[in-house]
Predict the structure.
Amino acid sequence: MKLIRKTILLSVMAACFLGAVGMAQARDLTIALRSEPSSMDPQFHSLTPNTQLSETLFDPLVRTDGNAKPVPSLAESWTVDGNVWTFKLRTDVKFSDGSPFTAEDVLFTYDRVPKVPNSPSSYSLYLSSIDKVEAPDPHTIKITTKGPSPVLLANLSMVPIMSHKAAAGPAPEGKTTVELNRGDGLVGTGPYKFVSWKRGAEIVFERNEHYWGDKPDWDKVTYRPISNSAARVAALLAGDVDVIEDPPTDDLPKLKKDKNLYIQETPSVRVIYLAMNQGQEPPPGMEGTDGKNPLADKRVRQALSLAIDRKAIVERIMDGVGLPAGNLLAYPAFGTSEKHSKAEVVNTEQAKKLMAEAGYPDGFTLSLGSPDGRYTNDKRIAQAVAAMWARIGVKTNVETMAPPVFFKQRNAYAFSTYLAGWAASSGEMLNPLKSLVVTKNKEKGLGTTNWSKYSNPEMDKLVAEASVTLDDDKRSKLLQQAGDMVMEDYGILPLQFELSVWAMKKDIRYGGRADQMTLAQDMTLAK
Amino acid sequence: MLATIVRRLLQTLLVVLIMSALVFGGLYLVGDPVDMLASPEATEAQRELIRQSFGLDQPLWRQYGIFLSKALQLDFGASFLTGESAMHLILERMPATLELATLAMFLSLVIGVPLGVYAGLKPNSKGARGVMAGSVLGFSLPNFWVGLMLIMLFAVMLGWLPAGGRGAVESFGPIKLSIFNWDGFKNLILPASTIAVAKCALIIRVTRAATRECLPQDYIKFARAKGLRERRVLGVHLMKNILIPIVTIGGLEYGQVFAFAVVTETVFSWPGMGKLLIDSIITLDRPVVVAYLMLTVVFLATLNLLVDIAYTVLDPRVRLGGGSAT
C-alpha cells in the first residue's frame, strides 16, 4: 500500500517536472491589446493597432529600429542618386507559404496601395512622393521620386510587402479587405503567420517556419483586445495574459511593487502640447481684453509657458510616466537642437512681470479645450494647467469633451487654447514642424494640424528647404533652426513626452518602442 | 391576434424610422468621422477623398435618403472602420450577447423567484429581512464595480475563473456559443453573475410584492380550506397568479440586458454587441450604430409582443387586441 502511494507520488512529481520542462521549451504568449485592429489588410487603415500586427506578419523594404532610424529589412542595401533610389533585395527570403520573395511582390504591393477601396486612412500617404517604381531584375527595385525625398525611407517602412502570388484576385486590388480579414491571401515574410481572428475576442498567430531572420521565442502568439484598462490589469494579475499594453498610471506604483511582474517604460515620440489661437481677432472663450487677442503677443505666450510647472505635471498627474518637454521631439532625435533639450522651468514672478509689460496686469479670461480620454490623463493635465495659469491672473475655463466632439470643435477654432498630442511617427522633426506649426496651406498639404493660426514665413521657408535636402547634416541643421525659431516664438507650448508602458510577467522582457508599438517578435523569455 | 401582430410590426417600423433619423442627425452633430478615421498627417485632398468614398460630402438629407433606400433592400451599409457589412458585424457578435443575457436572466429568475416567494410568505422573519436588505444592496451597487470586485475575488485572488474574454466556443452552423462547453462556460460565469446581481434584486422585490398581494385572496384561502397540501397551494394557485408581473419584468429586463450589456461587456472584454456599439460610437462609425439601433428596436418590440402572448396563456381573462371587455 505504502509502495503504491509512493509510486503514485513519484510519477506525479515526474509528470510535473516534465511538464515544466516542456513549457519552458515551447511557450505561448498572450498579449492584451488596448484596441482591436480594424482590419488585417495591411493596406486598409493606417493606424497603430493595425500596423503593429502587420509588422509581425509582413516586412517592409526598410524598417525603422526602436529609435526610428531606417535599417535594412527586405532590402539589403540602397543607394540614392538625386531622385533615383536603388534597393538591393535579399535573395534568401521566402513567404510563409514557402514561395520565394522577388521584386515582383514589391511592384504588386506598391501598385495595390491606391486601389484599396473605402480606406479610412489610406497608405497612399506614404507613397505620395513616388513618381514610378521599376524592377530592372528580380532582386533590384528602382524608385524615382517626384523631387528630392529625404523621408522616403521612413515612409517605405510603413508599407509592408505582400505576396503577389497569394494576394492576387479578380478585384482591381487583388484580394479584397474582407477576404484578407479572413486570412485569405494574408501571406507575408514576417516572423509569424496568421491563424485566426475572432472579432472582439482573439487574434492568433503562429511562428513562420520559413522566416529569414532570427527565430522568435514564441511558438504561438494570442492577442486579446481588452479596452478597459482596469480589466487589462486584472487579466494580467489573474494570469490570463502575459503582457499588457498601457496599464493605467494610477496602478503603476502598485504594479511595480509586485514581485511577479516586470514593468517597461520607454520614452515615446508622442508630445502633449498646448496650442494657442494667435489670430488678430479674440478667439471664442476670451474675455476682458478690449477686443484684442493677447495671445498674438509673444510676451503673453511666454508668460503662459513660464507659469506652467511641467515637472509637477509629470510627477503628480502622470505618476512619473512622462518627461517634461522643451521641444516637439525629445533630444537627440533627428533635427532637435540641444538648446531646447530641457523643458522650461516654472517662474511665476517673471510670468507676472511679462503679463504686466504686455498690458494685462490683471490678466484676462480664456478657454482651454481638451479631449477627455484621447491621451493619458488628458483632462487632468488640462485642469492642472488651468490652475497654474490662474496664479498669473489668467482665468481659464477648461472645456473637456469626448474626443470626436473635441476634434470637431477644435477644427472650428472654438477654443482660445487647446491641449492635444502628436506622435511624430517618422521620429524626426520635419514631421511635427510640417504638421503643427507651418502656415496652413490646404493645397500643399502643409500645416494640416495647425489650428492655432501660428504663421512664421521665415520658418516655413526653412522647413520647405529641409524637406527637399538629402544631405542629412544640412537637413538636421535646417530643422534645428526652424525648431528653435518656433520655441523662441512660443508658437506652441510643449508640455510633456509620454512614456509608453508595458506590464508583463516577470520572466518576459520587452524593450518597448518609441512608436508605442507592441511587437511579439521582439519579446523574449528572460534567462 | 394576427391583427395585433401586424399592428405591432407597423408601430415598430415607425419607431425604427424615427430612431434612425435621430441617430443620423445626432452623430452628424457630434463630429466628423473623417477626423476620427484619417491619419492626422493626411492632407486636405486625402481627407476629401475619404469623405467622397463614404458619401460624407453629400448634404445630410441626401445621405439619409440614400441610407433609407438601401435599408429597404436590407442593406445597412458598410462600417467606415472595417469596410465590412455593418449588419454582419453585429450579427456576428449577437450570439455572445444573447447567451450572456440569457444566462444572466436565468440566474436571476432561478435565485430571485424562490427568495421573493419566501420573503413574501414570511415577511417578518429574519431571513426575509436579510433577503430584502441584500436586494437593496444588489441594485444600488454600480454594475462595473460589482464586476471588478468579482474579478478581484474569483480571478485574481482565488484564480478559479478567467478575468475576461470568451474562451472556447462551439459552432452551431454560423452561430458560435460558449455556453455548451466547460472552458467557454467558465468565462461566462462572472459577467453573467455581475448582471444577475442587479436583476435578481429586482425579481426578488417584484415576486415578494406579488406574493403578498395574492396570499390574502379568496382562492388561496379556499384552496387551503379544501385541504390541499401547502405545496400545491403555493406551486399552482399562488405561482400561476404571481407569474404575470414576473414575466412582464423578466421580459423587459431581458431586453434591457440584451441591448445594453455595454458596461459589463467592457469590463469583462466580452466580445458582444454592446462593446461593438461603444467602439462604434467613439469612432463615429455611423452605419454600425444605426444598424445596431434598428436591430435592438425590432428585438425589443418582438420581446414585448411575446410577453403579451405569454399573458394570454397564463391568464385567459387577458385578451389581446383590446377586444370587448369580459
